[in-house]
Amino acid sequence: MAHAFDISPEKRASRVSFIWRQLFVTPPPVSSDEVNLTGRTALVTGATGGIGLEITRQLLGLGCKVIMGVRDERKGEPVRQVLIQEGNLDDDMVQVWKLDLSSYQSIIAFAANAKNLDNLNIAILNAGIYKVSEAFSPTGYEEGIQINYLSNIFLLISLLPIIKKNAPAGETGHICLVSSDTAAWAKFEERTTTPLLPAFKKPMKTWDMGERYGTSKLLGQLFLTALSKRVSSVTLSCANPGLCGGGSDLAREAKGILRFAHKLQCLVLSQTCAVGARTIVHSVTTLHRQAHGHYVEGDKIQPMAPIVSQDEGNELAERLYEETLEELSFAGVREIIEGVSD
After folding, report:
1. Is 335 contained in some domain?
2. Are 144 and 253 in contact (CB under 8 A)?
């Protein structure tokens, strides 16, 4: 459904608007007086630190049980214990499940286990990487594209029938893909290649980690736009927490001058992870159905990257959608989508 915005996609995507939001716009927290998630369960990936941990805290504060999807269960368990203790929660309010987005088999196993749940109706796909140096996954794709785009989309599709089945009466479940301002800044030069996805198996002429990260997030926006036109039985949104410091380890690989530059940027511009997490929580609670097929910043629906709403973006979204389903055809993703479509 089209949404009327009070700002153009181009203006929202400007660096000036980004700086303004970072310095002067603070979304309100979601209070337990307006939202009660008792009896519901949410999956949060990348939940052991940073924004993912704060999303988990805030959902728990609204009465929601949380499954933390983590690469290393040994790191997840101490975090779980802290959350249980600080919230004085029952032990079963937080669970730790293994989920390694670098492995399709891990995603398949996770989804198979999740089928046994009868109340998983929220999923927040927050896990991602920011690669300082270029590297390629066993699938042949650059690691950032593999993790941030292909693996997250595979997980999203795998969860569709589960989230649909467990929707509360008269409502839909919700899957939120965490996005980024950088999607709007990506040059996305690969968009002129046909087919599109194989371009990400080739080394960049000059490695640009910001460009590659932004492109991986832009691909997510394009795919979600195409998917949301076909699936309405599950609410699908993407949300941008903004630049967050004080716990976020997205740039954990950075060293030397790069690490210094990142820390300086965070010192000047970043909001806390707790503030950034509010946007994600608003997306799946106060906005919920309004956010279907849309992008959330703060507590409002905002334009996606400018290209998404352009004619070129519409064509790219459809092409990317078809190529992605073909790439993931080994898991029957097209049939999964058809099974939840209206």
Report:
1. no
2. no
Candidates 179, 216, 270, 283; catalytic one: 179
Answer for the pair 156, 125: CB distance below 8 angstroms, yes or no: yes
265-283 per-position pLDDT tens digit:
667 789 999 999 999 999 9
CATH number of the domain enclosing 178: 3.40.50.720
Q: 342 in a domain, yes or no?
A: no
63-109 per-position pLDDT tens digit: 999 999 999 999 999 999 999 999 999 999 999 999 999 999 999 99
Q: Is the pLDDT of residue 252 over 90?
A: no
User: Across residues 111-127, what is the average pLDDT?
Assistant: 97
Residue 340, in any domain of the structure? no
Number of domains in the chain: 1
Q: Cα dihedral sign for 253, 254, 255, 259?
A: negative
Catalytic residue among 213, 216, 283, 321: 213
Task: For residues 156 and 144, give the distance between their C-alpha atoms in angstroms, rounded to a whole number.
Answer: 17
- The answer to whether residue 217 is catalytic is yes
Note whether residue 35 is domain-resident. yes
Q: Kindly name the residue from 217, 228, 237, 321 that is annotated as catalytic.
A: 217
Q: Give the range of the structural domain holding residue 186, as residue numbers without chain letter.
A: 9-326
